[in-house]
Amino acid sequence: MLYSIIETLKKNQLSITDSRKKILEMFVKTKGALAHADIEHQSGTEFDRVTIYRTLQTFVEKGIIHTIPTADNSVRYALCKEECSEGHHHDDHVHFMCDDCGTTYCLDKISVPHLNLPNGFTASQTDVVVSGKCGKCN
Amino acid sequence: MLYSIIETLKKNQLSITDSRKKILEMFVKTKGALAHADIEHQSGTEFDRVTIYRTLQTFVEKGIIHTIPTADNSVRYALCKEECSEGHHHDDHVHFMCDDCGTTYCLDKISVPHLNLPNGFTASQTDVVVSGKCGKCN
DNA sequence: AAATATTTTGCAACAACGTTGCATTGTATT
DNA sequence: AATACAATGCAACGTTGTTGCAAAATATTT
Predict the structure, then answer these.
(1) Which of A59, A61, A83, B6 could connect to A65 by a Cys-Cys bridge, CB 3.0–4.6 Å?
(2) Which nucleotide's C1' is closest to A10 (Cα)?
(3) Interval B67-125: pLDDT, tens
(4) CATH 1.10.10.60, domain A12-132, yes or no
(5) Nearest nt (C1') from B50 Cα
(6) What ipTM was assigned to the predicted interfaces of this complex?
């Protein structure tokens, strides 16, 4: 199935601009997740740092991408699957970070297991981050 | 069982200094996790920012405390249980972050479930962070 | 207990990351 | 094509975290 960048932007009532098209394209073309710095390097001096920050923020708010909690507390982003409800992302899949190459994967097929919390605790979201070696580095 | 601050420092071959005693004491007295900023506020101008950073770093290296990955990518620390092997922390328990009061708990009794990774992927560490409402805020 | 060696601290400077306000430019609407 | 609206770039700023080095505190030796 094809991911239409223009359609995605329109659907979310966002103006179609160069930065949004290019940044969204990067996510579509990348299997793994991207950090702000990755985008900055890939795009060179084409966009201002601030524009990249704001674009990422907007995409997160609209539910186009989601943030990934990482073991080293760096901020990474990845495309949301179509089913993501707008603005509220259901983080029901597992993330994997390769210790060698640094790539972050969304393991969409592994769902987060249910946990029995202590009395009085209720969960709204569960994030699972696995570190180790990925298929390429093993 | 009593947690002896001095003993812990000695055991890890660390000089016994004011900052280490006080910062370690904060962790012992706190049920939840602490961020660098928490420590800075609680200790006022007593210690330099840099000292706090270095103390936390040292404690992590020695396996006295461990870092907690959070959904909002802020760095938090919590006391390790005695069983932690020096320098290498076995992060086999679940962490809980309250959306209301911001407290972070180590749910020591809930162990991280085993996951079936895709072919070629091997795990070295698994972090689980649950967000929601804690016992006090529910 | 005093002198020496070793560690730790505080300061200053710096780098990375992220945010905000505002004028300018680009996109959408009429 | 003209107007209204939204996004961008720039500058400035704040926070967070790091590094080098002299001064101070701790540990060790005599």
Answers:
(1) A59
(2) C28
(3) 988 877 788 999 987 544 444 445 578 889 888 888 888 888 888 888 999 999 999 88
(4) no
(5) C10
(6) 0.82
